[in-house]
C-alpha cells in the first residue's frame, strides 16, 4: 500500500517514523498529516530498495528546496549530471529533478537514482517526446508507458501536466509571454493538433493506478504558470488551478500522494494571495513553487530575484521551493550555477521556517551569532550554509593561520571592529560596577 493508504488505516510506516525523527515531530502527527494529504513522503518502493532516505514535504515539516539538473540536446553528460547532483545534495537540496531532454536519458536517470539518497523527480513528457518525430505523433498509450517505465526505474515524483484543458488555451492569447511551461506548451500543441482533450486528463485514473503501484507521488504540473509579472494571477493560471484541485482529490481517492506546482513570476504583493488561493482550491495539498521571481529585469541574477519571492512564498505556506540558478532564462546550469541556486534557496527556506516560528528554526542562527561575536572563525565556517565559500572569502585577505583567532576581519581591521569595541565597553562597565561595589559606604560623600 502507499503511504497515504497506510496512514488512513492508522499505520505509522517505517518511512513515517524516519521522517518524524528527521523533522523532530511526533510520529502520529506525521501519520495524520499524510492521511489528510497535507504532507507527502515521496518514496518510490524501488528507490527505497536502493538506499533512499525518506523525507517529507508539507506545511508541518521544514520548508524544503528542490534542485533541477539534467542534460540538454546541446550540452552535458552523465558525469556532469552526477557532479551537479553531488553539489546540490551536499549543500542541502532536499529533492532533485532530472529534467534531461538530450541523449542518454535512461542511463543518466538510472545513474542519478542509484547515486541519490534524496527523492528524484522527472517530467515524463520530456523523454516521451524524444521517441517521436513531433509531439502530435504521441499517443495516450505512449505517455502511460513512459510513466510506468520511469516508475519502474525508481522515480519518486513526477510532474504531469494534466490540468491544462482545451478551453484554457484561448485564455493565454493576450499574455505577454504565453505558455512558458515546456510540458504545458507541448500538451497545448497536442490538443490543438488533434482537437481533443488533454490525454493526461482523460487518462488520469489510469495514471493514478500506475503511480499507486510504486507509490510515485504526483507533482501536478502548472502548465499555465505565469512567465512574467505581467501574466501573474490571470484567468488562465487560476482556471488551471481549479482543475488541479479537482485532480488532487481524484488522486487521493485512488490512493496516491499529491503535491501541486505553483507560479514562477509573481509581484511581491500577490504572493500571499496565491498561496492562500492554492490552499483553498487544492484542499491544502502541499504547494511547490518555482521561485517565484518578483522582478523580470535581472537575467544572470534570477537566483536572487526568485529567492526573494521564494522566502515570501514559504512564509505564507509553500511547502517546497524549486530553485532558480543564475542561468535561468539564459542557458543550461553548470555545477557552479547549481551551488549558487541551492545556497540562495536554502537561505529562502530557512528564513521561511524562522518566519513560521518553527521550533528550533533559529538555533543555528543564534549559534553562529555567538561564534561571530566571540571571533570563533572556525565555528562560523562550520555553521555556514556554504563553509567552503565562507572560508575562502575570509582567507582572500587574511590567509595566515594566525588570523583564524584574530579579533577582527579585513573589513574593519584591529582598531575599528564594533564587536571588539563593544566587548571592551562591557568589560569596562563590569570593572566600574565592581569598583563601585567595593567602595566603603559614604566614601563618595
Automatic annotation (TrEMBL):
Cofactor binding, per record: Binds 1 [4Fe-4S] cluster per subunit. The cluster is coordinated with 3 cysteines and an exchangeable S-adenosyl-L-methionine.
EC id: 4.1.99.17
Pathway(s) it belongs to: Cofactor biosynthesis; thiamine diphosphate biosynthesis
Cofactor dependence: [4Fe-4S] cluster
Keyword terms of this UniProt record: 4Fe-4S, Iron, Iron-sulfur, Lyase, Metal-binding, S-adenosyl-L-methionine, Thiamine biosynthesis, Zinc
GO biological process: thiamine biosynthetic process; thiamine diphosphate biosynthetic process
Classification via Pfam families: ThiC_Rad_SAM
Residue numbers binding [4Fe-4S] cluster: 409, 412, 417
Residues where Zn(2+) binds: 265, 329
Keyword Lyase: yes
Known catalytic reactions: 5-amino-1-(5-phospho-beta-D-ribosyl)imidazole + S-adenosyl-L-methionine = 4-amino-2-methyl-5-(phosphooxymethyl)pyrimidine + CO + 5'-deoxyadenosine + formate + L-methionine + 3 H(+)
Cellular compartments per GO CC: cytosol
Molecular functions per Gene Ontology: 4 iron, 4 sulfur cluster binding; phosphomethylpyrimidine synthase activity; zinc ion binding
Binding, substrate: 68, 97, 126, 161, 181-183, 222-225, 261, 288
Family matches, as InterPro entries: ThiC, ThiC/Bza_core_dom, ThiC/BzaA/B
Top-level taxon of the source organism: Bacteria
Function according to Swiss-Prot or TrEMBL: Catalyzes the synthesis of the hydroxymethylpyrimidine phosphate (HMP-P) moiety of thiamine from aminoimidazole ribotide (AIR) in a radical S-adenosyl-L-methionine (SAM)-dependent reaction.
HAMAP family: ThiC
Similarity annotation: Belongs to the ThiC family.
Name of the molecule in the record: Phosphomethylpyrimidine synthase
Gene: thiC
Amino acid at each position: 500500500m502507499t503511504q497515504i493508504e497506510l496512514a488512513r488505516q492508522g499505520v505509522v510506516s517505517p518511512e513515517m517514523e524516519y521522517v518524524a525523527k528527521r523533522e523532530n515531530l511526533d510520529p502520529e502527527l506525521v501519520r495524520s498529516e499524510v492521511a489528510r494529504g497535507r504532507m507527502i513522503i515521496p518514496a518510490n518502493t524501488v528507490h527505497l530498495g536502493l538506499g533512499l532516505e525518506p523525507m517529507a514535504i508539507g506545511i508541518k515539516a521544514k520548508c524544503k528546496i528542490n534542485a533541477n539538473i539534467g542534460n540538454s540536446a546541446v550540452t552535458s553528460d552523465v558525469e556532469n549530471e552526477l557532479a551537479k547532483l553531488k553539489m546540490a545534495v551536499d549543500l542541502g537540496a532536499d529533492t532533485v529533478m532530472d529534467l534531461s531532454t538530450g541523449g542518454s536519458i535512461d542511463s543518466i536517470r538510472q545513474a542519478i537514482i542509484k547515486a541519490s539518497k534524496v527523492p528524484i523527480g522527472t517530467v515524463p513528457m520530456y523523454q516521451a517526446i524524444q521517441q517521436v518525430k513531433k509531439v502530435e505523433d504521441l499517443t495516450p498509450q505512449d505517455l502511460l508507458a513512459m510513466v510506468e517505465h520511469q516508475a519502474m526505474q525508481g522515480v519518486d515524483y513526477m510532474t504531469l501536466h494534466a490540468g491544462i484543458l482545451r478551453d484554457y488555451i484561448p485564455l493565454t492569447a493576450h499574455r505577454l509571454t504565453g505558455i512558458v511551461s515546456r510540458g504545458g506548451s507541448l500538451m497545448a500543441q497536442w490538443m490543438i493538433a488533434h482537437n481533443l482533450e488533454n490525454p493526461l486528463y482523460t487518462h488520469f485514473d489510469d495514471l493514478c493506478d500506475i503511480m499507486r503501484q510504486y507509490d510515485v507521488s504526483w507533482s501536478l504540473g502548472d502548465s499555465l504558470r505565469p512567465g512574467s509579472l505581467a501574466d501573474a494571477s490571470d484567468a488562465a493560471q487560476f482556471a488551471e488551478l481549479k482543475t488541479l484541485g479537482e485532480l488532487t482529490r481524484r488522486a487521493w481517492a485512488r490512493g496516491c500522494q499529491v503535491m501541486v506546482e505553483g507560479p514562477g513570476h509573481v509581484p511581491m504583493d500577490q504572493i500571499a494571495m496565491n498561496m492562500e488561493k492554492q490552499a483553498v482550491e487544492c484542499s491544502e495539498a502541499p504547494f511547490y513553487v518555482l521561485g517565484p521571481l518578483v522582478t523580470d529585469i535581472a537575467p544572470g541574477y534570477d537566483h536572487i530575484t526568485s529567492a526573494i519571492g521564494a522566502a515570501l512564498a514559504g512564509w505564507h505556506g509553500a511547502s517546497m521551493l524549486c530553485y532558480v540558478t543564475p542561468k535561468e532564462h539564459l542557458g543550461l546550469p553548470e555545477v557552479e550555477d547549481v551551488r549558487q541556486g541551492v545556497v540562495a534557496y536554502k537561505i529562502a527556506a530557512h528564513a521561511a521556517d524562522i518566519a513560521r516560528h518553527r521550533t528550533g528554526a533559529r538555533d543555528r542562527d543564534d549559534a553562529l551569532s555567538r561564534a561571530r561575536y566571540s571571533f570563533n572563525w572556525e565555528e562560523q565556517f562550520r555553521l555556514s550554509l556554504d563553509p567552503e565559500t565562507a572560508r575562502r572569502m575570509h582567507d582572500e585577505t587574511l590567509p595566515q593561520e594566525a588570523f583564524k583567532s584574530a579579533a577582527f576581519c579585513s573589513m574593519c581591521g584591529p582598531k575599528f571592529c564594533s564587536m571588539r569595541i563593544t566587548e571592551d565597553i562591557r568589560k569596562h562597565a563590569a570593572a566600574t560596577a565592581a569598583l563601585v561595589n567595593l567602595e566603603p559606604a559614604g566614601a563618595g560623600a
